[in-house]
Specification:
378 residues, Ribosomal Protein S5, domain 2, Alpha-Beta Plaits, 2 domains, four-stranded antiparallel beta sheet, 11 helices, binds adenosine-5'-diphosphate, binds magnesium ion, cytoplasm, Galactokinase, ATP-binding, metal-binding
Length: 378
């Protein structure tokens, strides 16, 4: 399906924004810590035609035959249904969160098409939000910069869609650059683009989507957040970000064993993000393998958010020569990443697939991603 088939005319402009993979820094975002995602070469495209009235209409290849519409005079989350909230919510958040005056603006016809897999932990949601946010701010000439747009995307996802997510995904999707990672301080929202330089080093990132979606993912996420809050309160700090590895012996004395291990994951993970940034700058990507593997072990043993499928993916990739590997995303299922030599990619993918077959697991989806440019007008 195309824009032309839905609306009967050709679009005037096209914007696109990528999904993302988190290289390292898991469950650190809501602890005011550090994350290191990159935008990937899978994008969501928003084709747009400008209207003369106040209507926004949206359609998606994702749900053929449905066209949702909402007037700029009726913008309110209660009037947004299903996935259309990812588009209408941006217009609403531009007004509510960024203070844009939309009273004299006209609407759009929008058609969304995407090759970011939905629900695989690659943030198809940020891809749609960020492409639309860049398009609307451009076409309405609102003059908002990309950091402001990241906040708009997060606000929309939190309050129009209703998902309590951080700002990592939008930051990666808006600020990503080719063959680079986005270093984000989740407290200050300071960002820096750091060269990943995989191309020059003959490396690639393999995504191994286990296609496991655990029923207790939501409950598990909440329990981890609660543990982190408890740990921070007991240690007398605002957030776990304020602790360093030197504080861990004191934490061990003060906290029960489970809370201590949750805290230890977050504190050491923040340190691993900082170490990864430094290592990338000083030694290049071949030297970050141990940090990725240590991150996985910490999530498996201390934070207890891995599953046997993710552990098998990581172990098999490492046994077949990966430079490093770890689960990525919230855990309890989802995907692992492996940093691999370009020539070894096929052998490692095959080894993981057959290890899954031998274990009686569902066949994983394995594919390569490259660090790509963030949201843009195409
Ligand atoms: P993830 O971001 O990990 O892929 P989310 O649950 O956060 O998963 O976001 C997925 C949701 O985003 C989908 O259920 C849908 O509502 C919306 N979405 C993503 N891509 C599209 C698309 N191409 N067209 C319409 N809605 C989309
Ligand atoms: Mg998402």
């Amino acid at each position: 399906m195309t824009f032309q088939q839905v609306y009967g005319y050709e679009p005037t402009v096209q914007y696109s924004a990528p999904g993302r993979v988190n290289l390292i820094g898991e469950h650190t975002d809501y602890n005011d810590g550090y994350v290191l995602p990159f935008a990937i070469d899978r994008r969501t495209v928003a084709s747009i035609g400008q209207r003369e009235d106040r209507l926004i209409r949206v359609a998606s290849a994702f749900e053929p035959d449905a066209v949702h519409e909402l007037s700029l005079d009726e913008l309110d989350p209660s009037r947004m249904q299903g996935w259309s909230a990812y588009v209408f919510g941006i217009a609403w958040a531009l007004r509510e969160q960024a203070g844009a005056d939309l009273s004299d603006k006209t609407g759009f016809d929008v058609f969304i098409d995407s090759d970011v897999p939905v629900g695989a932990g690659l943030s198809s949601s940020a891809a749609i939000e960020c492409g639309v946010a860049l398009a609307f701010t451009d076409l309405w000439e609102l003059g908002l910069d990309r950091k402001a747009l990241a906040r708009v995307g997060q606000y929309s996802e939190n309050h129009a869609v209703g998902a309590p997510t951080g700002i990592m995904d939008q930051s990666a999707s808006l600020l990503g650059e080719q063959d680079a990672v986005v270093f984000l301080d989740c407290r200050t929202l300071d960002t820096a683009v750091v060269d990943l330089a995989l191309e020059a080093n003959g490396l690639e990132v393999l995504v191994i989507d286990t296609r496991v979606e655990h029923a207790h993912a939501t409950g598990g996420y909440k329990a981890r957040r609660d543990s982190c809050e408890r740990g921070a309160a007991a240690m007398g700090v605002e957030a776990l970000r304020d602790l360093s590895v030197d504080d861990l012996p004191r934490a061990q004395e003060l906290l029960d064993d489970e809370t201590f291990r949750r805290v230890r994951h977050v504190v050491t993970e923040d340190q691993r993000v900082l170490d990864t940034v430094r290592t990338l700058r000083e030694q290049g990507p071949r030297a970050i393998g141990d940090l990725l593997v240590a991150s996985h072990a910490s999530m498996r043993d201390d934070f207890e958010i891995s599953v046997p499928e993710l552990d098998l993916a990581v172990e098999t990739a490492m046994a077949h020569g990966a430079v490093g590997a770890r689960m990525t995303g919230g855990g309890f299922g989802g995907a692992a990443i492996a940093l691999v030599d370009r020539e070894a990619r096929g052998a490692i993918a095959d080894a993981v697939t057959s290890a899954f077959a031998s274990a009686g697991y569902r066949e994983p989806t394995v594919f390569t991603v490259h660090a790509a440019q963030g949201a843009r007008r195409d």
